[in-house]
Design brief:
Blueprint lengths: L9 H9 L7 H11 L4 E4 L6 H14 L10 E4 L3 H14 L7 E4 L6 H9 L3 E4 L1 H10 L9 E4 L2 H6 L3 H10 L5 E6 L4 H10 L4 E4 L10 E7 L5 H11 L5 E4 L3 H13 L4 E4 L5 H13 L4 E4 L14 E4 L6 H8 L9 E7 L4 H11 L5 E2 L17 H33 L1
Parallel strand pairs: 1-6, 1-7, 2-4, 2-5, 3-4, 5-6, 8-13, 8-14, 9-11, 9-12, 10-11, 12-13
Helix pairs in contact: 2-3, 3-4, 6-8
C-alpha cells in the first residue's frame, strides 16, 4: 500500500515524499484512515514504528479542511518528556510545511515568554508536556476550550512519570466532545483504566506483540563485575570503532561520572538527564545527532522521545529496575526496520533484574564473554546463634564468679589460720 491510497491530500503527500517515505508503516496504514474518519483510537505500537506520523498526518488533514478564524488551538498532543515534545513538534512542522497551519511546542526548563508570544499570535496545534501546559492554563495564556483532537503520546510513560493527575486536570479543560487518541508501547491495568475514562468506542490498533523488542535489534549480555564495566565499555567503543552509541545509566550522578571517565579514556561523550538545563540537553542531543559527540550517556528520561536516525548501538551500563524500561531503552535502535545492537553490562547484583527482563520478553538473552571474570559469590562465615553465644558468655561469667568466690574463701581461711 502507498500513502496515496490512504486518502491524504496532495500537500501532505508532497511533504511525505520529500522525507523519502513511499510506503506507510503498519501503524500508519491502519491508523491514518481511522483518524481521518474522526474515530477514537487506542494504539499499541513500539517506539520506532512511525506512530508520530500515524496521528500527525491525519490531524493536519482534518484541521486543514476547516478555517480557524480565532486562531485558537484545535489539536493538543501531550507528551511525557521535553525531547519527545520537540520531536513531535518537528514532525508537525515537517509534514505541514505546505499548509497554513501553525504548530507550537510548550515545555518547561525554558523561558515562558516566547511561548506566550507565539500563543498570542494564534496557533492551530499545541504539543506540550503536562506541567508547562497547566502553567499556561493557570496564567490564562492558553485557551483549550476549542480543542477538537486530544492525543496522549507514550501514555504508559506518562503514567510511569506520575502525570496521571495532570492528565485529568487537562481533560477537564478541553471540550467533552472531541476526538481522542492514546498511543502506548506497553499495556498495564493503569493504561486500561485511563483508556476507559478517555476514549469513546475506540478502534483498537495493535501492530506488534506487546512487551517485545523490535525484530531488527540483536540483544546480548556481558557478565562483568561492576568495577569492570567502564573499562569494558571504553574498549568496546574504541576497538569496535563505534561512531554513535547511546548508553543508559540508572542515576544522574552515574551518568555524569561515566561521562567524565569516558572522556578521560579518549572517548568523546556528553550526558543528558533531568538535572541538565534544557539548553544543555538540546546541545548534547544535537552534537550527538551530528556526530560531534560519539557517546551520549543518558538516564531513562531519554528512553522516550529520542528519534536518532541510524543509531547502531545502545548499551545498558546499568539495568533498569522496571523491566518495561528495558524495552523503551533498546527501542532507540532498530527503528523503522533498521538493524541495531543492544548490549547490557550485567554485574552480579543485577542478575535478578536480568531475570525479570527475560521473563517479560519471554526469551533468554544470549551471553557474550567479556574476558573479565565475575567475582565469586562471597559466602559469609557461619556464626553461632546469638542464644548460643549468650549461653557461652553466661557460662564463662559463672565460672569466673565461682573462681573469684573460691579464691576469696581460700584467702579468708588462710587469714584465720594466721590469726
Amino acid at each position: 500500500m502507498s500513502f496515496e491510497k490512504l486518502g491524504l491530500r496532495t500537500d501532505l503527500l508532497r511533504a511525505v515524499k520529500a522525507q523519502g517515505y513511499t510506503i506507510p508503516t503498519p501503524i500508519q496504514a491502519r491508523a491514518i484512515p481511522v483518524v481521518l474518519e474522526g474515530k477514537d483510537v487506542l494504539a499499541g505500537a513500539r517506539t520506532g514504528t512511525g506512530k508520530t506520523a500515524a496521528f500527525a498526518l491525519p490531524i493536519l488533514q482534518r484541521l486543514s479542511e476547516t478555517q480557524n478564524k480565532g486562531r485558537h488551538p484545535r489539536a493538543l498532543v501531550l507528551t511525557p518528556t521535553r525531547e519527545l515534545a520537540a520531536q513531535v513538534g518537528e514532525s508537525f512542522e515537517t509534514y505541514g510545511k505546505h499548509l497554513s497551519l501553525r504548530t507550537t511546542v510548550i515545555f518547561g526548563g525554558v523561558n515562558i515568554n516566547p511561548q506566550i508570544s507565539k500563543l498570542r499570535h494564534g496557533v492551530d496545534i499545541v504539543v506540550a508536556t503536562p506541567g508547562r501546559l497547566l502553567d499556561h492554563a493557570a496564567r490564562r495564556t492558553l485557551d483549550l476550550s476549542r480543542i477538537e483532537v486530544l492525543v496522549l503520546d507514550e501514555g504508559d510513560r506518562m503514567l510511569d512519570m506520575g502525570f496521571i493527575h495532570d492528565i485529568r486536570k487537562v481533560i477537564k479543560l478541553v471540550p467533552v466532545k472531541r476526538q481522542n487518541m492514546l498511543f502506548s508501547a506497553t499495556y498495564s491495568d493503569e493504561i486500561k483504566r485511563l483508556a476507559d475514562g478517555l476514549l469513546i468506542k475506540p478502534v483498537l490498533i495493535e501492530v506488534s506483540q506487546r512487551n517485545t523488542a523490535a525484530e531488527g535489534v540483536t540483544q546480548m549480555v556481558y557478565q562483568v563485575p561492576q568495577a569492570g564495566k567502564r573499562g569494558l565499555l571504553s574498549s568496546l567503543i574504541r576497538e569496535g570503532n563505534w561512531h554513535k552509541v547511546l548508553v543508559f545509566t540508572r542515576t544522574k550522578h552515574g551518568a555524569n561520572k561515566l561521562t567524565k571517565q569516558l572522556l578521560s579514556d579518549g572517548v568523546s561523550a556528553a550526558a543528558i538527564h533531568g538535572n541538565k538545563s534544557q539548553s544543555t540537553r538540546t546541545k548534547a542531543l544535537a552534537d550527538f545527532k551530528s556526530g560531534a559527540v560519539q557517546t551520549l550517556v543518558a538516564t531513562d528520561i531519554a528512553a522516550r522521545g529520542l528519534d536518532i536516525q541510524q543509531l547502531p548501538h545502545v548499551v545498558n551500563f546499568d539495568l533498569p529496575h522496571v523491566p518495561e524500561d528495558y524495552i523503551h531503552r533498546i527501542g532507540r535502535t532498530g527503528r523503522a526496520g533498521a538493524d541495531g545492537i543492544a548490549l547490557s553490562l550485567v554485574s552480579q547484583d543485577e542478575q535478578k533484574l536480568l531475570m525479570g527482563i527475560q521473563r517479560l520478553l519471554k526469551l533468554q538473552i544470549p551471553v557474550k564473554e567479556s574476558g573479565i571474570r565475575m567475582p565469586p559469590a562471597v559466602s559469609k562465615p557461619k556464626s553461632r546463634p546469638v542464644v548460643a553465644r549468650k549461653k557461652t558468655q553466661n557460662a564463662r561469667g559463672r565460672k569466673a564468679i565461682s573462681g573469684w568466690l573460691s579464691s576469696g574463701h581460700q584467702r579468708m581461711k588462710e587469714a584465720g589460720a594466721r590469726a
